[in-house]
Write a structure and sequence with these properties.
CATH class of the largest domain: Alpha Beta
CATH architecture of the largest domain: 3-Layer(aba) Sandwich
Structural class: alpha/beta
Strand content: 5-15%
Largest sheet: 7 strands, parallel
Distance between the termini: 40 Å
Helix content: 40-55%
Length: 256
């Protein structure tokens, strides 16, 4: 495949696809020619993303599942196979925050974040890789974060996202022989509803939070969901078959 030749249409699963980064990734992969299973806790919340994908001319289905629940993930992937066909692209984007400093962090804060961000990535990867192996081709792209390097008040999130990086590299080693690549994108500050909620929670305006991020970033702007979607699209591309086990920081070169 060269230049602007179209890719082979595939079925992609995008977790946390109802809004923000996940919705941006789902739309970009649809533009790349793929059919999309938009997976989130609430199928109704995925309706806008599904409609946007269908406007592009690709098939889409909304799927409700808690990615931390093994039975729910098994059922969801089975439903996707019935609705669209076997998924050979898996984008593990679903994630939550429960920010607190270590002295104030409850075991529920810890478990909830680890279960969704790390366990969920494992479960979706495990359930989709069998379809990729059958096809002799697959792409797993996991969402990590710059928080994997450590971040105040996010010991749970940092541990989960660092774990995602280790999982990604191991998947690359285990699955490469089957034509499957595994890579991770680690976003910095991205302007989404989730980061707006963080600003509200810590008691500052979202504009001030964005200005702080701009001052701390060499490129002088905050990131957008499309910045992450572009990176995911690269890893999911047919032409990226020799790129695996990589962690790509999409963060505008944070200072310090």
């Amino acid at each position: 495949m060269k230049g602007n030749e179209k890719q082979t249409p595939r079925v992609a699963v995008v977790t946390g696809g109802a809004r923000g980064i996940g919705a941006g990734i789902a739309l970009r992969l649809a533009q790349d020619g793929h059919d999309i299973a938009v997976l989130d806790l609430d199928a109704m919340a995925c309706a806008e993303t599904v409609r946007a994908i269908e406007k592009i001319g690709r098939r889409a289905v909304a799927v409700a599942a808690n990615v931390a629940d093994e039975a729910a993930v098994k059922f969801a992937i089975s439903h996707i196979v019935d609705a669209l066909g076997p998924p050979t692209i898996a984008i593990n984007n679903a994630g939550i925050l429960r920010d607190r400093t270590i002295g104030k962090m409850s075991i529920n804060d810890w478990d909830s974040v680890i279960n969704v961000n790390l366990r969920g990535t494992f479960l979706v990867s495990r359930e989709t890789q069998s379809h990729m192996r059958s096809a002799g081709w697959g792409r797993i792209v996991n969402l990590s974060s710059t928080a994997a390097l450590g971040n105040l008040g996010e010991s749970n999130y940092a541990a989960a996202k660092a774990g995602v990086q280790g999982l990604t590299k191991t998947l690359a080693i285990e699955l490469g022989r089957y034509g499957i690549t595994a890579n991770a994108v680690a976003p910095g500050f991205i302007e989404t509803a989730m980061t707006a909620e963080v600003a509200e929670r810590v008691g500052i305006s979202f504009d001030e939070m964005k200005q702080q991020a701009i001052r701390a970033t060499a490129v002088g702007r905050v990131g957008q969901p499309d910045d992450i979607a572009n990176a995911v699209s690269f890893f999911a591309d047919e032409r990226s078959g020799f790129v695996t086990g990589q962690i790509l920081y999409v963060a505008g070169a944070p200072r310090g």
